[in-house]
Amino acid sequence: MRRRPERALIAGLGLLLATGCLAGEPAQLLGSHVLTRPGDPLFGGLSGIEVSEAGDTITLLSDRGSWTRGRLQRDAEGRIVAVDLAPMQPLKGRGEAPLERSRSDSEGLAIAADGAAYVSFEGAARVLRYRDLGGSAENLPVAPEFRRMQGNGALEALAVDAEGTLYTLPERSGGTTRPFPVYRFRDGEWDQPFSLPREDSFLPVGTDIGPDGRFYLLERQFRGLLGFASRVRRFAIDGDSLSPGETLLQTSAGTHDNLEGISVWRDAAGRLTLSLVADDNFAFFQSTQIVEYRIAD
Q: In terms of domain of life, where is this protein from (predicted)?
């Protein structure tokens, strides 16, 4: 679809803001790469992303209960030049059958140090554990609060730290001025140690614990015909509390598509990188893309 001149101008200004050329924010655009898999009916709606420590392997999660893994080829500057993806595969339930469609709204993806994968869901709000994403699932306990969440605003984001502690939060907090509760799973139990401050009309769509141990939050703001604006904030975790946080990246509407997933890693030179994936909503006028930024420590 051809972009209107005014939208192109808005996107260009947003790109300047995002790279810090105007606002001085500590983020530098590394590149954007469009993903396609012609003939794969399960491909699309990507909402979760995990990039390996070396930056050469990627795992992607769809919001319709499927996943894929692939290899990334990069140039000398670290920009993605090619992606070799395997066919999408359906997530399984506790047996060998794929998840029921009514329970397959998979949104958040986190891969622990031991290789176990965790997936969070909207609809029937819960978290599943997979020893291997191609295998059967194990249900984690369901916190009572999960059962009261909005069907299309539940566990959108999921992260795991180096010790295997999980963090998840809903896309909607239940009130325009109410902070977003963050739930923690450790020692077989859920608790809710802290909340994230709500700023403007941005909603959380992805989270990760970076190699620096800090909590990274990807947020989205829908601006109608102008498209989506994105923001990334970072917080330090100190026991049961969070630091005030800092904004690393904020784009204007239309700079990128519907960014929903985030993975934070270090390249071979030790530089922190944000890898973000866009959900095309299975719509022909949107695109599936990986967007990457380098950020300061």
A: Bacteria
